[in-house]
Amino acid sequence: MKNFFENVFRYPRYLITFALGIFFSVFQWLRPRDRSSAIAMGIFVVSALIFVVLTLRAMLGLAIV
């Protein structure tokens, strides 16, 4: 039984390592090359975040204050 719990406690560490690896490889691939593409990337990220927030609020029926 001790072996079982040792294996179970390894999974969160594996998940964090896996997620960070994906994040860093995508970040290196999307890293802006110059200032104008960095500004465009920032605008895209902010607009995507706003889109997701507004969509979830509309789907959940939350009032916009």
Fold and architecture overview:
The chain contains two helices and no strands. The mean pLDDT is 87. It is flat and about 55 Å long. The protein has two domains: 1-31; 33-65. With 65 residues, the chain is an all-alpha fold. Helices cover 85% and strands 0% of the residues.
Offer a quick outline of the entry.
With 65 residues, the protein is mainly α. Helices cover 85% and strands 0% of the residues.
Write the layout of secondary structure elements.
Layout: H1 2-30, H2 35-60
Order of helices and strands: HH
**Rg on CA atoms, Å:** 19 Å
- The tally of structural domains comes to 2
Low-confidence stretches: none
Please, how many helices?
2
Notable characteristics:
0% strand, 2 domains, 2 helices, flat, 65 residues, mainly alpha
